[in-house]
Specification:
185 residues; alpha/beta; 29% helix; 28% strand; globular
């Protein structure tokens, strides 16, 4: 059975992007050799990458033409991808499938695969998958910056959702990687 791992970066005040969509300047504060190595590890380990539509469109636009990180671009373009969308019908990025039912589709795929499934970004999708009980782990890179405002990574909940600490690790840029197992409520 495959694990579903949600990967994202946030500021120390909890925002995964600034006030505007795709305002990802916080990434500049955490990106370095350690995160590059982690990204390459994702490419070796992942069986599937999952995105919400907005993240998918940004990733597709960037990685299909990126020349600054050829090793990362190579795996991002090669690896199978699933985009959750009710509006996208014809994905243009290679190796991409679309689903309008991400909960059902990912529940099925978790049962039929062994390699980990990674959700990159896609805070709205992560929230719905957390609510459905499908996320097994949260892997969060905390960038050493205070944004002051933006879009929060985790949404407000009616009830607390317990998580179990698995590990933490400082990275070369002063950021921290936090890994949690999501437990049943």
């Amino acid at each position: 059975m495959g694990k579903l791992i949600a990967w994202n970066i946030m500021s120390i005040d909890g925002f995964f992007e600034g006030d505007e969509p795709w305002d990802l300047r916080l990434h500049e504060h955490i990106w370095g050799d350690d995160l590059r190595d982690l990204s390459l590890h994702f490419g070796e380990e992942a069986g599937l990458l999952v995105f919400g539509r907005a993240t998918y469109e940004g990733m597709a636009a960037h990685w299909s033409s990126d020349t600054s990180e050829p090793d990362i671009a190579r795996y991002m373009n090669r690896i199978p991808k699933l985009v959750a969308s009710r509006t996208l019908t014809e994905p243009e990025w290679n190796n991409t499938e679309v689903t309008a039912d991400p909960v059902g589709e990912l529940a099925r795929r978790k049962q039929s695969t062994d390699p980990p499934i990674y959700i990159f970004g896609s805070a709205e999708l992560v929230d719905s998958l957390l609510e459905a009980g499908l996320v097994d782990e949260l892997l969060i890179g905390v960038a050493p910056v205070i944004l002051g405002s933006g879009t929060p990574l985790l949404k407000a909940r009616a009830a607390a959702r317990p998580v179990r600490f698995l590990e933490s690790r400082a990275v070369d840029t002063g950021g921290v990687l936090l890994r949690y197992r999501v437990t049943d409520a």
